[in-house]
Amino acid sequence: MFNAVLLLRLARHDIDIVTIGYFAWVALLPTFKFLWSPLLDRFSVPGFSRFWGKRRGWIMLSQLGIFASMVGMAFTSADTNLPLVALFAILLAFWTTTLEVAADGWRIELAPTQEAQAPIVAANLWGYRSAMVAAGSGAVLIAARADWTFAYLAIALAAFAPFPVLALTRQEPGTDSSRGTALLNGVAIGTAILTASCAIVAILGWMALTMLAGAGIDSETNLTPAVIAIALAPFALLAIALPRIKRLPSDAPLLRSTTLGPFVDIFWRYGFATLVVLGFVSLYRVGDVLALTLSHPMWDARGYSLDQIGIADGAIALPASMVGVALGSWMVAKWRLSWALAAGALVAALGNWVYVWLWWRPPEGWVLYASVAVDQFGNGLAGAVFVVYLSMLVNPRFPAAQYAFLSGFAFLLARLLAGASGEMQQAIGYDGFLVLTGAASIAAIVFLPFLARIRSRGNSAGPQEAA
Question: Which residues form a coiled coil (predicted)?
């Protein structure tokens, strides 16, 4: 949601639609969260974890990172220096993703079964969506009355509010530090980590821009094929290695590796059926992600005001989404998972297609509000069902790493295509683009009969047993 607000901000500053589409590639970062997610399973954050434990320690560090990144976004809100805007957008995506990894690992540890996951997923998504919708809607409404700098600063303060609440929670059993000492050390070490991460991203970004300029690549160059090839490479290598992985004994060194074991275990447990699973998860949310990418620029192009967009993002989207999450969670608890997934795909497609109707209607407030309600209801329902499905694929021995891998891959194709959404819109228009996104959601249903017959072969020895 907040990336969509950034795209709206860029559109209001007359940045061209192709460049706006490229900014959607910032959302690719969560796709590769599996690269650092094993660190969250294995290591604790110095300082914070000495009192609050591993999971809460990572959450607190991530909250500091989110706050600092949003302050950076606030002071670059004129959008006159797009590389600097991209730097803080990437940092915001990184720390938001790290927070999600820690929270997902904690959630799966607390509720390892499908029945137990349904209510905890509902609670998690209600909180997550409430925060994201409130931040997005709040930023737009504040910007309508003040400016984008003030809007981002206000949301940064709101995002930081849970930190002192978490700091007051009980001590983790088995820790050996006092609250005050852990807090001071955690803030000091966290500040150093945030500074280092900012410097690393800045250097890597400068190197990438220099290399692109040296190769003669500019804003007019079609980067989509190259980005797709680079992003798919690690997953393609795992697929090529699948025959060898399938033949491994359960206690093979590769499966017991702390860094690679959690990911190889997925392919080992499901064999060649892993390719069917990955094909399905990569397609299931494509329509929603693509529609969200250009929804705010589309509303702006259609003539809706910031006030109307802010109300749609908040007062309309939040309750509609929460109802969808509640119904989706109930369906998962009561229905066969394949039927719940099919219903989610159908409702998500309708949510995208309703925007075709919006595009051809005069820009009246009720039209926007009705369209957003339908879209967000479908998004919430499909999202709740999908989270439970991914959670059921995870080996509970390493929940954070495997859920990060699966959820990251689930949005890889969608986020790759999102970067080219501006080019697609130029070619087929907003209405054609939205018809296409809805059709993509429907296409995922083809996989469901095959998924229903897939079974895991059991669990490998895993890093924990090796230790």
Answer: none
Q: Which amino acid is at 255?
A: L
DSSP symbol at 221: S
Q: Are 418 and 289 in contact (CB under 8 A)?
A: yes
Q: What are the start-end ranges of the E strands in 409-465? A: none
The string of pLDDT tens digits covering residues 131-177 is: 666 666 777 788 887 888 888 898 888 888 889 888 888 888 888 88
Residue among 175, 156, 192, 160 nearest 48 (CA): 175
Residue 224: other Cβ atoms inside 10 A: 17
Around Cβ 36, how many Cβ atoms within 10 Å?
14
- Domain extent, residue 159, equals 2-466
Instruction: Look at residues 48, 86, 41, 269 and name the one whose alpha carbon lies nearest to residue 171.
Output: 48
Share of the chain above pLDDT 70, in %: 86
CA-to-CA separations, 61 to 200, 204, 427, 439, in angstroms, rounded:
17, 22, 43, 40
Q: Which residue in 381, 313, 44 sits closest to 155, CA to CA?
A: 313
CA-wise closest residue to 301 among 11, 28, 54, 10: 11
| Rounded Cα gap, residues 371 and 355, in angstroms | 6
Residue with the two structure tokens 């996989």 = 447
pTM: 0.66
How is residue 409 written in tokens?
């891959």
With 0-12 CB in 10 A as exposed, 13-18 as middle and 19+ as buried, what is 360?
exposed
Q: What is the CATH number of the domain that holds 162?
A: 1.20.1250.20
- Residue written as token pair 């702390």: 258
Please state, in angstroms and rounded to a whole number, the distance separating the CA atoms of residues 256 and 131: 38
379-428 per-position pLDDT tens digit:
889 988 998 888 888 887 777 778 878 887 788 777 777 777 777 788 88
CB 129 within 8 A of CB 236: no
